[in-house]
């Protein structure tokens, strides 16, 4: 596999790892800022999205529910980007019956 393709896959895996962490630390935010400057547009897009999530809700507890309630546009973008890899606690949609709005 070419080096560029391998690097892209490794960076995408690294970014999904940030999303699964219980806390996106300031050190992780620094890494996301570096990855937001990556040569591959897909990596840049995902890094910028996760950087926005980290700034809004760095802790994993109720992250998906919080985003669906307080930041629906961010929730929709995040859901569209990683629809196949959604965690179990993620609401199915903004009209989830568990959400009080």
Give a written overview of the molecule.
This protein has 101 residues and is mainly alpha-helical. It has one domain (3-83). Helix content is 61%, strand content 0%. It has five helices and no strands. It has helices at residues 3-20, 26-35, 41-56, 63-70, 72-81. α1 packs parallel to α3 (41-56), α3 (41-56) packs antiparallel against α5 and α4 crosses α5. The radius of gyration is 14 Å and the shape is globular. The termini are far apart. 19% of the residues are buried. The model has no long low-confidence stretch (mean pLDDT 82).
Please describe the structure with a list of short key phrases separated by commas or semicolons.
101 residues, mainly alpha, 61% helix, 0% strand
Return the average pLDDT rounded to an integer: 82
Percent in strands: under 5%
* Proportion of helical residues: 55-70%
Radius of gyration: 14 Å
Instruction: Give the count of structural domains.
Output: 1
SSE pattern: HHHHH
* Stretches with pLDDT under 50, minimum 5 residues: none
Number of strands: 0
Largest sheet: none
In DSSP terms (H or I, runs of 4 or more residues), the helix count works out at 5
Cα(first) to Cα(last) distance is 48 Å
Structural class: mainly alpha
Outline: globular
């Amino acid at each position: 596999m070419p080096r560029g393709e391998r690097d892209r896959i490794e960076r995408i895996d690294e970014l999904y790892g940030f999303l699964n962490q219980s806390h996106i630390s300031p050190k992780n935010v620094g890494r996301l800022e570096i990855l937001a400057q990556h040569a591959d547009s897909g990596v840049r897009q995902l890094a910028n999205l996760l950087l926005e999530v980290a700034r809004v809700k760095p802790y994993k507890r109720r992250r998906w529910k919080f985003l669906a309630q307080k930041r629906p546009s961010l929730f929709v973008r995040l859901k569209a980007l990683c629809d196949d890899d959604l965690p179990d606690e993620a609401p199915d949609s903004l009209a989830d019956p568990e959400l009080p709005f």
